Amino acid sequence: MEDEKALAPIEEQTVDFYGDSITTVLVDINGHTTRYIPLRPICEYLGLSWSGQRERTMRDPILSAEVALVRVTHTTATGGILDSLCLPIEFLNGWLFGINASRVRSELKEKVIKYQRDCYRILWEAFNPPFLPTQDSERLQARTALEQIRAACLGIAQRAEQQIQVEQHLTNHQNKLTRFSRSPHDRNRVFTDVLNDDQNKNQTISDT
């Protein structure tokens, strides 16, 4: 690890965690970006021996395979540029839970537990904000809803027009039948009109 060349970050950000500034760095490795967390500043915030925690990390078969040296600015109280031992952010919880809270100083025990409980979640939320629909998406949803309403209204209007035609047809028949009953001398003419009207209606329907 000492001979390994430090990686140069393409982005460096700081997240506030209950007053502690957690530095994160984004590194590009062969076209794949990974976000790393320097471990030493967290040890300092928790009052832990860095040498002991570094040794613990390197003994772990999983964590030791994932650590990397990254050139990070301002990771110590004295500032400056430091080649810092870092873990990918998704392995931070595993590293934190390797700390035995019962073995730290009593005044720091609660803080260690707070880190173990909340640190990863806060970091995750900082770099993975909840999805918010864009204005284009909102406009598309609104347009789709309006098109559905328009189609429904057109269907209702079409059915209403058909019903009006049926009612008009029945009314015409009723009027002709009334004339037929009141004017015995015009029965043949009324009967012919009814037949012709039905034929015209049937022809119109077949044409459509």
Q: Any overview of this molecule?
A:
- Helix content is 56%, strand content 18%.
- With 208 residues, it is α+β, with helices and mostly antiparallel strands.
- The chain folds into two domains: 11-127, no CATH class; 135-207.
- A five-stranded antiparallel beta sheet has the order 1-2-3-5-4.
- Helix 6 packs antiparallel against helix 7 (187-207).
- The longest helix is centred in the C-terminal third of the chain and has 48 residues, at 135-182.
- The chain starts with 10 loop residues before the first strand and ends with a helix.
- The mean pLDDT is 77.
Q: Which structural traits does this protein have?
A:
208 residues, alpha+beta, 2 domains, five-stranded antiparallel β-sheet, 7 helices, 5 strands, rod-shaped
The percent range for strand residues is 15-25%
Largest sheet: 5 strands, antiparallel
Q: How confident overall, as mean pLDDT?
A: 77
Number of domains: 2
The number of distinct helices, counting runs of at least 4 residues, comes to 7
Q: How far apart, in Å, are the first and last alpha carbons?
A: 84 Å
The number of E-state strands comes to 5
**What is the succession of H and E elements?**
EEEHHHEEHHHH
C-alpha geometry = rod-shaped
> Could you list the spans in which at least 5 consecutive residues all have pLDDT below 50?
none
- Please state the oligomeric state of the protein chains shown: single chain
Neighbour order of strands in the largest sheet:
1-2-3-5-4
- Radius of gyration based on Cα positions: 40 Å
